Amino acid sequence: MLERRKSRKVCAGGVYIGGDAPITVQSMLNCLSADVKGNVKQAIELETAGCQIIRVAVPDLQAVRLIPALKQAVKTPIVADIHFDYRLALESVAAGADKIRINPGNIGDESRVRAVANACAAKNIPIRIGVNSGSVEKEFLAKHGGPTPLAMAESAMYHVGLLEKFDFGDIVISIKSSDVASMVEGYEIAAALCDYPLHLGVTEAGTYHMGLIKSSAGLGALLLKGIGDTIRVSMTDDPVREVSAGLDILKGLGINKNSPVIVSCPTCGRTKIDIISLAKEIENQLAGCNKQIKVAVMGCVVNGPGEAKEADIGIAGGDGCAMLFKKGELVRKVPENEIVSELMKEIELM
User: Fold this and answer.
1) Which one of 98, 128, 219, 267 is CB 3.0 to 4.6 Å from 172, fit for a cystine?
2) In 3-state terms, what secondary structure has residue 261?
3) Are the C-beta atoms of residues 96 and 125 closer than 8 Å to each other?
4) Which of 252, 272, 298 is the last residue of a domain?
5) Burial 167-198 (b: 16+ CB within 10 A, else e)
6) Can you name the residues that pair with 17 across neighbouring β-strands?
7) Is pLDDT above 80 for 104?
8) Is 63 domain-assigned?
9) Are 239 and 322 found together in one domain?
10) What is d(CA 178, CA 165) in angstroms, rounded to the nearest whole number?
11) Using DSSP, how many helices (H) and how many strands (E) does the chain show?
12) pLDDT value of position 291
């Protein structure tokens, strides 16, 4: 079992981040801020997909109206994403935001930072300090020769210091980069410097394919070391796919155990049935299933009950048929056209 980094626990709209709380999956709405109906529809889709925290951009005063509309439509906590104008943070807090995302360095002098900290403290709303490779201050860039992992981490801790100066401690930190190695190292440095919960993400990761690969690599590297309390898979695609990818990353790492895990062989010349199609169909059939089981879809008896003996249930392909097995023990032979239906019947009985 992975040993999590010990961090503080903060609460955003009833969802805890850090401490012993489960790792949460986030996403961000990408409709135009003027499109209230579009944002509400997308938020509902995200919530239905399993998103646990939803972020929305608040680029101007008109966009603040999104917050009460979203709060009325979904139960998922809403994070207001603020840049430059500290008044938008104050208005978002007043409108009911559950969390504020700011970069304290770009909202003006310390009096403005204090105003935001005081407003959030009065309503027990956490603040996420969001630092990325493109927002590092000039002094840190000059000191380290660019947006290095150490420069990003020092920038984050500088912003933490600003909030701590005003006795504010409900802080979440993110240190994002489009470079996976820099992102990983930046978070490792921050994890060693403080006990605040960490929001993981590879920023500007690309389209679905590369976004998934880079996020899996970066998030996986950190989560396997126990670093990270909430995640966002960034990709140029439908935010619902970000949520699905995030949940699957947690499942693949063995962190989220509230759904079936499918293990399947890559197939070879010994395979005599269409295992590729079967594996996809079984995966679709198990979508939404909350049973904590391991299901094996194997191409032949070589990779069947033997190699997948730790699976709770599975099938091993034969010649136009498959052997159904449980915990490594053969149960019965099933015709090829009945494999999925028979397997699902057995899973329902488990």
Assistant:
1) 128
2) strand
3) no
4) 252
5) ebebbbbbbbbbbbebbbbbbbbbbeebebbb
6) 10
7) no
8) yes
9) no
10) 31
11) 11, 15
12) 87
Domain count within the chain: 2
Q: CA 321, CA 8: separation in Å to the nearest integer?
A: 53
Contacting residues for 308 by C-beta, under 8 A, at least 6 apart: 263, 296, 298, 314, 316, 328
CA atoms lying within 13 Å on the CB side of residue 205: 28
**Full domain range(s) for residue 55:** 9-252
Residue 308 has pLDDT above 80, yes or no: no
Q: What is the pLDDT of residues 335-345, one digit of tens each?
A: 989 999 999 99
CA distances from 325 to 309, 310, 322, 331, 346 (A): 9, 11, 9, 5, 10
| Res 51: pLDDT | 97
Quick one: 46 and 184 in the same domain? yes
State the pTM of this model: 0.90
Could you tell me if residue 2 is inside a domain?
A: no
Backbone angles phi, psi at 275, to 5 degrees: -65, -35
- Tokens representing 147 are 């947006």
Same domain for 34 and 69? Answer: yes
User: Hey, what are 253's tokens?
Assistant: 């790492």
205 closest CA partner among 227, 229, 237, 174? 237
**In this structure, are 266 and 152 located in the same domain?**
no
Choose among 216, 147, 142: nearest CA to 185: 147
301, two tokens: 């008896």
Query: What's at 340, amino acid-wise?
Result: V
Residues 74 and 98 in one domain: yes
Give me the count of residues in the chain: 350
Q: Does residue 240 share a domain with residue 302? A: no
Bridge partner residues of 11 (DSSP): 16
For residue 148, the domain's CATH number is 3.20.20.20
User: Which pLDDT tens digit goes with each residue over 176-206?
Assistant: 999 999 999 999 999 999 999 999 999 888 8
Asked if residue 126 lies in contact with residue 170, where contact means CB atoms within 8 angstroms, the answer is: yes
Which residue among 219, 252, 285 closes a domain? 252
CATH code of the domain in which 290 resides: 3.30.413.10
Q: CA 213, 130, 208: angle at the middle one, nearest 5?
A: 20
Q: How many Cα atoms within 13 Å fall on the side-chain side of residue 242?
A: 33
